[in-house]
Write a structure and sequence with these properties.
Number of domains: 2
Distance between the termini: 33 Å
CATH architecture of the largest domain: Distorted Sandwich
Number of strands: 20
Strand order of the largest sheet: 6-7-8-9-18-15-14-11-12
Shape: elongated
Structural class: alpha+beta
Strand content: 25-35%
Largest sheet: 9 strands, antiparallel
CATH topology of the largest domain: Beta-galactosidase, Chain A, domain 5
Radius of gyration: 29 Å
CATH class of the largest domain: Mainly Beta
Number of helices: 12
Length: about 525
């Protein structure tokens, strides 16, 4: 038994270290730039059109669409969306809005891959109209209308004359959020339906090295980083999507627009959302299906709603997290007290356990069998002391999933913490440490110390039998250190939640004692 416990402890340590490494992995910092020069001389509108092409930005005059949420820069001769500014969110420079630009077209409607000559025929702050003719003589009108209530654009492309042909939508996204320099992976999410009409999400993470086909029939396509995304809803049909190789700092897709029927429609409508990946923002714009939620995620969203409500009252997300964690701990108090009482009974049985272990010191199998029989006789469980933590873990996982993309936490300060969505980064270490990196994150260290104190106090001065294999797993500094390592690169808001939970458990222990 002792060997198995030792092996389990080592495997637990390796798993948590690997998990911390995964969570804390550093991603290359994107440096999205654009060659756009507003007011520069126009270049020929015809663009090289060939399969699987990333359309680079060229110098041309630009026009802009404006709403309370967005500034959208559109090429006057290419008709492509070149850059988007999210007005309600700050970028790297204080006071300036967050800008998204990939060095290629963010959105470009390509007409059957045939070069087209675009002409701007109507321009206002809310709408743009282009007329285009492709090399086959087909005539098109394209209308951009920016939404005044949500960060989105409605696009209508209508074929006025000529033979109906396929329309290709090229979309790209880059890491525009430079506040998060730790972990900001790029993803593509495609929503389609299976043969039974059930929604199916397909998720693709990271850089695309070779062209890949996404399952056909996509009706909602999302390109995203951690907090912000571009989501396209095909309103008059669906799309066959391909992932296109690009630079490591961006993701690119090509979507061939299809009709719900057999014939290609003369009119295509789509809506494009540029904004937070946060569920609540997406829902207000009608894009709540852009990313899968799941049962755990729904629980997390309920918790976030409560957290947001508390934050509105306190005017501080740091204080709101402390109060929220306190409420959760109080709600779990009955189970916490059960765990404390069970551990107290185990301490009372310690002399009997020691006698059993001494009698069968040469046969640990028999010793453990009799110890567990003693537990059963007195109706206690050796893991009951861990009951509060075990019950808290699903809550924490739900909160972790929900808070990972909760944009309202981005940039929120508390005490020495500059951003509750990132590790607290009090200072930098003189050298990079394995698993921990180069930042000194104080909050996880305080949390690990609080967990250790909680464990020692709950065990009492006498502690548990050193021969009890279960005690070996959950006593001493091992678990506290492992949790400290695992949480070291977590967002400081989550670490603050678990720290508050540990401190409140100490309060309940003192009351129970």
């Amino acid at each position: 038994m002792e060997k198995r416990v030792l092996i389990a402890a080592v495997l637990s340590a390796l798993f948590m270290a690997w998990y911390a490494r995964l969570v804390g992995k550093w991603y290359p910092q994107a440096s999205p730039t654009t060659q756009t020069i507003p007011g520069a001389a126009q270049v020929p509108a015809a663009m090289s059109a060939k399969p699987a092409t990333v359309y680079p930005l060229e110098q041309e005059n630009t026009v802009s669409l404006e709403s309370p949420d967005l500034t959208v820069e559109v090429g006057a001769s290419s008709g492509m969306i070149r850059r988007v500014s999210l007005k309600r969110f700050s970028g790297q420079s204080e006071g300036r809005p967050l800008e998204i630009s990939t060095g290629s077209a963010l959105v470009y409607l390509n007409l059957s891959r045939n070069p087209a000559s675009w002409h701007l025929i109507e321009h206002s702050a809310e709408r743009l109209t282009f007329n285009a003719s492709d090399s086959n003589g087909n005539n098109y009108n394209i209308l951009y209308v920016i939404d005044s209530d949500n960060p989105m654009i409605n696009i209508t492309l209508e074929q006025m004359s000529g033979e109906q042909s396929e329309i290709i939508l090229s979309s790209s996204w880059a890491r525009g959020d430079t506040l998060d320099q730790r972990k900001n992976p790029l993803e593509v999410n495609a929503l389609s339906k299976d043969t039974h009409g059930k929604d199916v999400h397909k998720r693709y993470i990271g850089h695309v090295k070779q062209e890949r086909n996404v399952p056909r029939g996509t009706f909602l396509l999302s390109l995203t980083e951690r907090y912000f995304c571009q989501a396209v809803r095909f309103k008059t049909g669906f799309a066959d999507v391909k992932l296109i190789p690009s630079s490591e700092e961006s993701i690119v897709t090509e979507a061939a627009l299809k009709a719900n029927g057999s014939a290609q429609p003369a009119r295509q409508e789509l809506s494009i959302y540029f904004g937070p990946r946060d569920y609540f923002h997406l829902k207000r714009a009608g894009f709540e299906q852009a990313f899968p939620i799941g049962t755990i995620g729904q629980i997390g969203l309920i918790m976030l709603s409560l957290l947001s409500w508390i934050a509105k009252l306190t005017k501080s997300y740091g204080i709101a997290i402390i109060l929220f964690a306190s409420l959760i701990t109080c709600a779990m108090a009955p189970f916490t007290l059960i765990g404390f009482k069970s551990m107290k009974k185990m301490q009372e049985l310690k002399p009997q356990i020691d006698r059993i272990m001494a009698q069968h010191k040469d046969n640990t199998t028999v010793a453990n069998r009799e110890v567990f029989a003693l537990y059963k006789q007195h109706r206690i469980s050796p893991i009951s002391g861990c009951l509060p933590m075990l019950l808290q873990m699903p809550i924490f996982i739900a909160l972790f999933q929900a808070i990972s993309h909760f944009v309202e936490l981005r940039g929120q300060r508390f005490l020495w913490i500059k951003d509750l969505s990132l590790p607290d980064r009090l200072s930098q270490l003189p050298a990079t440490l394995p698993l921990l990196g180069k930042d000194l994150n104080l909050l996880p260290i305080i949390m690990a110390a609080a967990m250790y104190i909680q464990t020692k106090l709950s065990q009492g001065r006498s502690g548990q039998s050193t021969q009890d294999p279960t005690a070996k797993m959950f006593s001493g500094p091992m678990m506290s250190v492992l949790f400290g390592v695992m949480f070291y690169q977590f967002p400081s808001g989550l670490v603050l939640y678990w720290l508050t939970n540990s401190l409140m458990s100490l309060v309940w222990y003192r009351l129970a004692k």
